[in-house]
Amino acid sequence: MLSLPGRTKRSRLIQQFLMNAIKAGDSEFIRHAIETFKVSRQAIFSHLKSLVNSGYLKPTGNTRARVYVLGPVRNHTAVVPLGGLDESVVYYRDFGFIFDDLPSNIESICHFGFTEMLNNAIDHSGGTFVTIIVKRDSERINIQISDNGVGIFNHIARVFNLSDPRESLFELHKGKLTTDPVNHTGQGIFFTSRAFDRFYIVSDDLIFSHKDGDEDDYLWHNEGKNKGTHILMHINLESDKTLKSVFDDFTGNEEENFVFNKTVVPVKLALYEGEKLISRSQAKRILNRVEKFKKVQLDFKGVDMIGQSFADEIFRVFARRNPHIQLVPVNVTEEVGRTIQAAVKGGD
Hints:
Low-confidence stretches: 252-258
Mean pLDDT: 86
Order of helices and strands: HHHEEEHHEEHHHEEHEHEHEH
Oligomer: single chain
Number of strands: 10
Distance between the termini: 65 Å
Structural class: alpha+beta
C-alpha cells in the first residue's frame, strides 16, 4: 500500500497501477493503463506528472524515448499474520523496492534492523499480526514495526522475574538479553539501536529512545497505553556509519575471537523518579548480567550522588568477586568520584 498523491480513490488506483507496472518492468504500462481504466493517454500522462512532481517517479530520456524509474520517495505499508512468517522474505518481496539502490552501508543497516526486529515480533511477541511501515525520501529512511502482542517490557519482566517493567528496558540496553537463549543471542536490539540514527521502543506506557551522538538514552512515561510493541527507527541516507563500525565498538580483538564483550550501562536509567542510588539492591540491579561482559562502562552522567553502600557493592564487593571484569566509571561528578574512590580503597 502506497500513500500516493491522487485526490480521489480512482486517481490513487491508477497511480498504484502505474507504480506497480513500472516496478515490474512493464514496457507497455501506458497502453495497459489506458485499456484497464478506459482513460485517455493525456490522463495517464497527467498522473505520471503528478507522481514525478511528488518524487515517486523519475523520468529519464527525451519525450519520445522517455523512461520512468522509481524516484527518491518510496513507501509501503503491510499488515501480515505472524504465523509462519519469514522476515527475509518479507524484506525482499514486499519492501525490496524501497531498499533498492541505497548506499551499501545504509542497505546493510536497514536489512539488519528490519529482519532482527521483525524476527523478535515473530518469535517473542505472542501476537497474531504485525504492521510494517517503511518510508523513504531524498534524505532519510524510516522503518516502523508494530505487533499486537503482550508488549516487550512486560514480557521480559515476567520471564526474568523483574519487579518493574522499567527494569527490562535497563536490561535491554546492556545487551545479550534473550528469553530464548537456544535460538537467540540477545544482540539484535542492542546493535540495531546503535546502528540507526534514532531508535524508539514504545510499549504499554513506556518509551525508550536512543539517538546517535547523544550520550544519554531516555526512558519516557506515556500517558496513554500502547498495546503490543512498536519499534521505530530511522537513518539519514548520507550517513557514513557501517554495521562493522557498530560491531567493532563493542566486540573484542582477534585474541578475544571478536566476541561481543563490551557494554555501556547508563546508570541514570536505574534512577526512578524520586529515588536516590544508595542501596545495595539498586547496585545489584545495575550489575545484573554484567558478568556476560569483559568490559563494563558505567556511565554516571546525570547522577549527582550515590550512597556508600551502593558504591561498595559495585566497586569493592562485585569487583573483588569478578576480577576478570573491567569496571570503568565515566562522566562522574566530583562527589560521585570521591564515593567510588572510598569504596575502592575499602577493598585494599
